Amino acid sequence: MVKVRRRGLPLVTAALLAACRSDSAGIVTPPVTPPAQNPDTIPLRSLAALRGLRVGAAIDRGFRFIGAEGTQFRATFTREFSMLTPENDMKHDRIHPARATYRFEASDSLVAFAQANGMLVRGHTLVWHQQLARWLTSTTWTTAEASTLLTQHVADIVSHFRGKLSAWDVVNEPLADNGALRAGFWLDNVGASYIELAFRAARAADPDVALYINDYNIEGLSPKSDSMYALVQRLVARRVPITGVGFESHYVVGGLPTRNDLATNLARYGALGLKVQITELDIRLRLPSTAEQLQTQAQNYRDVFGVCLQSPACNAVVTWGVTDRESWVPSTFPGWGDALLFDTSFVPKPAFRSVYALLAGR
Length: 362
Ligand code: XIL
Prior knowledge:
Elements: H1 14-19, H2 44-50, E1 54-59, H3 67-80, E2 83-86, H4 92-95, H5 105-116, E3 120-127, H6 134-137, H7 143-160, E4 167-172, H8 185-190, H9 194-205, E5 210-215, H10 223-237, E6 244-247, E7 250-252, H11 259-271, E8 275-286, H12 291-310, E9 314-319, H13 329-332, E10 336-337, H14 350-359
Parallel strand pairs: 1-2, 1-9, 2-3, 3-4, 4-5, 5-6, 6-8, 7-8, 8-9
Antiparallel strand pairs: 8-10
């Protein structure tokens, strides 16, 4: 095993990469074949490992591709990525469809796939206001009942995956756009203490997994981002077991926070002793996209990876899908798409190449 300093790697040499088979966190990199002299034969995940960075993707529809499409999808994913987030399979409605029924098959198979391919898994997500099972939302509960339902859900699921995941998004999207706590089933039925309850229940069920709070529009500096920081500060002050903050990072091309704001925000969480992960990165374009937009997108991707790389607190970047073929964007934002690193034919886009060059020290 080659020991490499985490930051400030001046230039990644092909010989060093060729010699590297695993990093200290246990990434097993596919053999570099052939010839190691060509840096582009080295997977992105291996370059990232040398910088102490995980590069991940959310997985859902791509795993249902069959035939050549399925083969291509898996080959692209396993070659370039070292972290997997189930895009939907761990959400309440899928994993807990009836009060006394858990359905773990889909998420278990994603976890097994990740393990077989040397990937870490980010669990997503335990407590959220969306994708809740009907049995939960269609009944009226007392505060005590709702609190028990929350802690039970968290305890059962975290226990099921105990020892198998690297992180959990324990609480997802707790803030409204104005920075107030977002109304929704858990806030309305349990009260503001639901956040703290969820973290404590998760820690009780798994002593080692990293515990995250995750949200969007908190990446730069804004009233909402300040609210998240204040919320996290309060949790830390109350010794709530929180490891870090997930910056979702769903962007419109050209509409990202500045590198400075992103770096400043990352640093203030670092100063609290917390980690940050970029958890759902995508940068959407108006369709049909132009070559110019694809270039701007490439620069935007490079900026996000670049800031993470330079921030000691940031240790992973996860894109919300692998290719433009299975991304959630076109169906969620009609008229928009082309948001990821690979195109609909599995071809690496300018965005992939710019991230690759960055990680290769070029
Ligand atoms: C999205 C999925 O990508 C879609 O497939 C699903 O229909 C809705 O949820 N923030 C989150 C993710 O935390 O869970 C969401 O995922 C995207 C926004």
